[in-house]
Write a structure and sequence with these properties.
Helix content of chain B: 25-40%
Radius of gyration of chain A: 17 Å
CATH superfamily of chain B: PAC-like subunit
Shape of chain A: globular
CATH topology of chain B: Rossmann fold
Largest sheet of chain A: 8 strands, mixed
Oligomer: heterodimer
Radius of gyration of chain B: 18 Å
CATH architecture of chain A: 3-Layer(aba) Sandwich
CATH class of chain A: Alpha Beta
Helix content of chain A: 25-40%
Number of domains of chain A: 1
Largest interface: A-B, 44 and 34 residues
Number of strands of chain A: 11
CATH architecture of chain B: 3-Layer(aba) Sandwich
Number of strands of chain B: 11
Structural class of chain A: alpha/beta
Strand order of the largest sheet of chain A: 1-3-6-7-2-8-11-9
CATH class of chain B: Alpha Beta
Largest sheet of chain B: 9 strands, mixed
Number of helices of chain B: 6
Chain lengths: 226, 258
């Protein structure tokens, strides 16, 4: 194999200055749930799959986003509806509003930077200037707080969408690196963190209520009218 | 992007000296170099990014996201010398990454006419002491004699782990004068396994380093500065603790069919 991380095009979309929305199976699966709901709501269509030999189909770490250098996991395929395919990051697009919805997948310790950089390259090639990341943070407060790549964007979140900063600390895995590396790739990014109570025995156990709160906020930012 | 050194402004060094103090045992190198950066008001001139840093970012208290990175800060003294300090919030995790980053920084320094490379690290000892000794390993005997004249002692045997050690080894291979100063520490570890910072050791290392560099640095505010750094590094330690907690192994062995 020549490449460790590659993209396969699945379709085209006419997009004008799309906003990228990014989420992955993280704490209480907030990002994953929000991406699923957003794809359903917008009827977005699949435009590309990103594969990487650094993506395990079976993780040795739990949760999946807590990569460990000694625990690379095992490669393999995932079978869905009788069809086998490798683990992948998926890009969906819709034109109104102009969005690229990115369903993330956590590479292992070795490949997380590489996958995040490839994702950002793809988004940049598709004229994305702004990225909105959605994730969870451990808190008993049922609120949404934010973070961003610039002070101006932090101020904009507060003024336009009434989102305060609140979470500080590490942000691990796919979405954290896409968020952190975006500025280096010439894009700006903001992140919505939904407060959710960690379930110690299963940190990725879905929290539908928290993801609905994040989705509601995301709809307001994207200008959806319920 | 294995390693990328991004210069923020035009960089025009003269008689360049590189001083490395990346986070390691008891944070002695980082503590020392960060203190000099503050005291000398050294200016951030470059950033080092790499895929070899651990794969997470840090959300700061002001809401901004920060990548793990190393930083280059420059200080130009009255004689026209340029001293660049290498510090950062992380080291590469693997030996491969540590070699690549140290090599990239050293090559950058060589391309900018570096004359000497210093690094600061820890020497863990069980010996009871009132004042920590500072040991030294150098790339030339002449430099060793110089270091001794400024209060360092020869390091007979030992291991210098991480980039602070690797850069001295690479300097020797590339015929660049280099000295690694190792301050004695008891290397206390918190219950979580993290090293507790040792400002006393940093102060001892700085005494030798500033003497060798002929730098006048006010050491009086050290206690106050150390308290502030203590707080900042405590946050780093807290982040590491949380990362380690989340890295708990599931106990499940990989199976090929589930």
């Amino acid at each position: 194999m020549e490449k460790e991380t590659w993209i396969e095009r699945r379709g085209d979309a006419e997009l004008i200055e799309p906003i990228a929305v990014v989420g992955s199976p993280g704490l209480r699966s907030i990002g994953k749930l929000v991406m699923g709901s957003l794809i359903a709501k917008t009827k977005a269509t699949l435009i590309a799959d990103l594969y990487s030999t650094h993506m395990p189909s079976i993780y040795q770490t739990k949760p999946s986003y807590a990569a460990h250098p000694m625990l690379p996991g095992s490669g393999g395929v995932i079978v869905k509806s009788g069809e086998a395919d490798f683990p992948k990051v998926q890009f969906y697009a819709c034109s109104t509003p102009s969005l690229i919805i990115t369903k993330g997948y956590h590479a292992n310790f070795e490949g997380q930077y590489e996958v995040a950089i490839k994702v950002l390259d793809f988004l940049a090639e598709n004229h994305v200037r702004r990225i909105i990341v959605v994730a969870g943070y451990g808190s008993k407060d049922k609120k949404i707080c934010g973070a961003a790549t610039s002070k101006e964007l932090v101020a904009e979140m507060k003024e336009k969408y009434n989102i305060d900063i609140g979470y500080s600390g590490p942000f691990m895995g796919f979405s954290g690196l896409v968020f952190g590396l975006s500025k280096r790739k010439g894009m700006e990014a903001l992140c919505l963190f939904a407060g959710t109570e960690p379930k110690e025995d299963d940190l990725e156990f879905p929290d539908k209520e928290a993801s609905d709160r994040a989705l509601d906020k995301l709809h307001k930012i994207l200008g959806f009218h319920e | 992007m294995n390693v990328e050194i991004k210069m923020l402004n035009e960089f025009t060094p003269s008689q360049l000296i590189l001083v490395c103090g990346l986070p390691g045992t008891a944070y002695i190198g980082k503590l020392s170099v960060d203190y000099l950066i503050q005291q000398l008001k050294a200016e951030l001139v470059g950033e080092v990014y790499s895929k070899y840093f651990p794969p997470f970012v840090v959300i700061r208290e002001d809401g901004l996201v920060e990548l793990l990175r190393n930083e280059l800060h420059q200080f130009k003294d009255e004689s026209g010398r340029t001293i660049v300090f290498l510090t950062g919030n992380s080291q590469a995790y693997s030996p491969e990454g540590q070699y690549e980053i140290a090599d990239a920084v050293l090559e950058w320094a060589i391309n900018n006419g570096v004359q000497r490379v210093y690094s600061i690290a820890a020497y863990i000892t069980e010996r009871p002491f009132e004042a920590p000794n500072v040991y030294c390993t150098t790339t030339t005997l002449a430099l060793l004699e110089e270091a001794k004249a400024h209060g360092a002692q020869l390091l007979d045997n030992g291991v210098i782990g991480g980039e602070n050690g690797i850069i001295t080894g690479l300097a020797k291979k590339k015929n660049v004068e280099g000295a690694c100063l190792l301050a004695e520490t008891h290397g206390y570890q918190a219950p979580t396994g993290e090293y507790v910072i040792d400002p006393r050791a940093a102060k001892a290392a700085l005494k030798v380093l500033t003497s060798m560099l002929n730098l006048k640095v006010d050491m009086e505010p050290m206690a106050k500065q150390v308290a502030q750094m203590d707080e900042a590094i405590a946050k780093l330690v807290e982040i590491e603790r949380r990362i380690q907690k989340e890295m708990a192994v599931s106990g499940k062995k990989p199976a090929y069919v589930t």
